[in-house]
Amino acid sequence: MVDWSSLDTVFLDMDGTLLDLHFDNHFWLEHLPVRYAEHHNLRPQDARDRLIPMIMAERGSLKWYCTDYWSERLALDITALKAEVGDRIGYRPHVTEFLDALRASGLRSVIVTNCHPDPLALKLRHTGLEARVDAIVSSHQLGKPKEDPAFWRDLQRLAPYQAGSTLMVDDSFPVLESARSAGIAQCLAVLAPDSQQQARARHPEIPGIHHFDEILPALRQRSPLPSSR
């Protein structure tokens, strides 16, 4: 599924790949409509009916992920509202073991996320994730989302890489297709990003896993450190 011997860099999505997407889904589909309803004197279902189409219209664009944009458009402090449900932020199964194995193997690990810097900081405070990887890049630093093929060219400025020896792991099929089109040699889909929802069907061309324990044994075999075997 992954040719570890050919790699020197592993790009990792954050939400839905390393962290449970339940936090984000709960916030946008449940918590935000309640707070929006309170602010605008609406019934929660009416707020949801107004919000969801508005949000979905921006899907795939940088605005979709931009906390500043939604704070201004909805007249609410989105980052503060996310903090209200911050106890839901957490790792997906086997992630810490996987990240430890990556480090032990000598592979470079870089989080490449569409998450806006403000909620990114919130998630790092809750998880300490930054201590487990070599670097973190937000698409907001480059002004374009990972779905944009030009993102991967511009990423070279912040996290130089050789496409032929790089793996991208993400729960978004459009992002993985974008990475593959940009020449990323190996792509891997996460099929169960939200612990509270059913896993998705597999991509017809990109291999997928439900959890990292499916690829941990092969990764550990690559490691030169006896303690990580």
TrEMBL record:
SUPFAM superfamilies with a match to the protein in the record:
HAD-like
The question of whether Metal-binding is a record keyword is answered with yes
Molecular-function GO term, any one: metal ion binding
Q: Which GO terms describe its cellular component?
A: cytosol
Show the coiled coil region(s): none
Which Gene Ontology terms describe the biological processes this protein takes part in?
Answer: DNA repair
Tagged with keyword Amino-acid biosynthesis:
no
Q: Which UniProt keywords apply?
A: Metal-binding
| InterPro entries in the record | HAD-like_hydrolase_sf, HAD-like_sf, HAD-SF_hydro_IA, HAD_sf
For this protein, the record's PANTHER family field holds: GMP_IMP NUCLEOTIDASE YRFG, PHOSPHOGLYCOLATE PHOSPHATASE
The name this protein carries in UniProt is Haloacid dehalogenase superfamily, subfamily IA, variant 3 with third motif having DD or ED
**Originating species:** Marinobacter subterrani
